[in-house]
Amino acid sequence: MTDDSKSSDAQYSLSVSIKEHNANSQSLVLTVMDKHFLRKYSNTYTQNALRDKGLTQTADKLQNILETAASNHNKKKGWDLRYGYHKNTSKTDTIDRLAIHLTASESSSLRKEPRSGDTLYIVLSIQEEYFSVDTQFRLHEIDKPKKTKRRTLSNAPKPIGIHFASPSTPSFPLNSDEAQKIEDLKAKIKSLTRDNQVLKRKVEKLESTSGKKQKKMDSEREMRLQANKERFWLKQKLERLQKAIAARLKILGVDFSQVEDITGALDMAFNVIQKLAKELQEKEDGFEDMKTRMTAATKESTELRKDKDTLTATLDKHRSALQDFKKQIADRERRLSVATHEKNDTQSMLTKQVQDLKDETESLRAEKEKIFNQMVDERSALKRELDDKRKALQEIQLGLNKAKEGNDKLSAESEQIKDDNAALLNAQSDLEAKLQEALKEIEDVKGELEVEQRNSDARKQKNQKLRKEVKALYAELTRLKKLLEKATAIEQQLKECLTEASELAINAANGRDKMNAAMNSSSSGSDGDEVEDDDD
């Protein structure tokens, strides 16, 4: 499936089409027809190749951009599309992945007439407020004109019926003058052969020398292209980094795009710091409130534990007294049974005494049961209070968990800020290195321009513009460095607050574990007492 659209001018006709391989894969096909010289050039660009050239737009959007740039009737300010021929430096490489192939001087000297070994280049330059494009496309010839075969001596038609005999074997008798002429011609032929061999060696030597010079020029051109590519890549990376930083700062409520001086930037950074400090203060106040509630609950649980120990001691005392009464009754019954056999007269009296003792025992048992029931009721009340305190402790634990989650979130944010700071520092070091290289290159270019073109005002203005851009970049890097130092200080404060909060959370968790262990031990002791009462 293809979607073609054509734009043409006086000499060139540009055709842009989209080739779909599958549902998720598309290619952009550029075809240019040179109507003056009847030559056709084309090349296909995949999504990865376009991304390497710095074009991240979709295929439809790139098609519209190329059509708009190529049309004569819809010229826009800041849009420029130029065609031209230049010698192909890499004949074996058919894949076009470089954003810049030619330097500024080479692109300005593109030819309108093709030569042998030339390639058609399309130079696209767009400077808009929200995006910019500066790239080059290299197209290869697909419909080459047929070459006429040159006629040489080897393939020239030979005359029919004429045969030359060898001079050494003449087919007719020769006189002495003719034989001398033949010998002179043979000597002249040998001399010319030697001269031809010498000239051939000189030509080979000259060709090897010119080949070395051409290789050196090609290597220098490749180095310049690589430097231009790295400069373009660095520019794009810096723009993406600035956009990412601006987006992250907008999330925090800071928009440095509207700041005109360093004072406004410092005010915005101070507002962000105040906002973060306010949130941290609220977290600390909540944590102090939960800590106070935890302390009060711990004190109440300690008092309840003391009351429980007192009641347990009283219950044990009454239980031991009841055991003593039971032993006394058993002893008296045993004595009465022995005395019954010896003295029948005293049986009625002993029976009465036994009945009195039984009544007294019953009264004591009823009193003890009443005391025991009261203790059970008090114990159930204490148990209910302990359950209420446990619920309160669970609520406090939930609050602590929420505070811990908030602290973890702040820690994650601080780690993210730290990673961003490290990325910014790495990018800053890379930028400084690239700036040093750019400054060195500018100095070299300046020396060459002073030697070769002393009266070139345009080049001097370009160097001054480059210096201003470098100074602006250096000022921007200085401002970013100051912001990084402030972000590092904020990160250090957040780390200290998180450390204090984590220590408080650990102490609260240890106190809760100790209280749960004490309550479990007290509940196991009370269960053992209930079993003994049931046995009695």
Task: Provide a descriptive summary of the structure in words.
The protein is α+β, with helices and mostly antiparallel strands and 536 residues long. It has 7 helices and 7 strands, in the order ββββααβαββαααα. The chain has helices at residues 47-52, 59-70, 104-108, 176-251, 262-342, 347-452, 457-535; strands at 5-8, 12-22, 25-34, 39-46, 79-87, 118-127, 132-143. It has a 7-stranded antiparallel β-sheet with strand order 1-2-3-4-7-6-5. The longest helix has 106 residues, at 347-452. It is elongated, with a radius of gyration of 52 Å. The two termini are 97 Å apart. 9% of the residues are buried.
- The best one-word shape is elongated
State the separation between the terminal residues, measured CA to CA: 97 Å
Global mean pLDDT: 77
Order of strands across the biggest sheet?
A: 1-2-3-4-7-6-5
What ranges have pLDDT less than 50 throughout 5 or more consecutive residues? 1-8, 151-172
How many distinct beta strands?
7
Assembly status: single chain
Q: How many helix segments?
A: 7
The proportion of strand residues reads: 5-15%
User: Which range best describes the helical content: under 10%, 10-25%, 25-40%, 40-55%, 55-70% or over 70%?
Assistant: 55-70%
User: What is Rg?
Assistant: 52 Å
Q: Helix and strand succession?
A: EEEEHHEHEEHHHH
Biggest β-sheet description: 7 strands, antiparallel
Structural class, from helix and strand content? Answer: alpha+beta
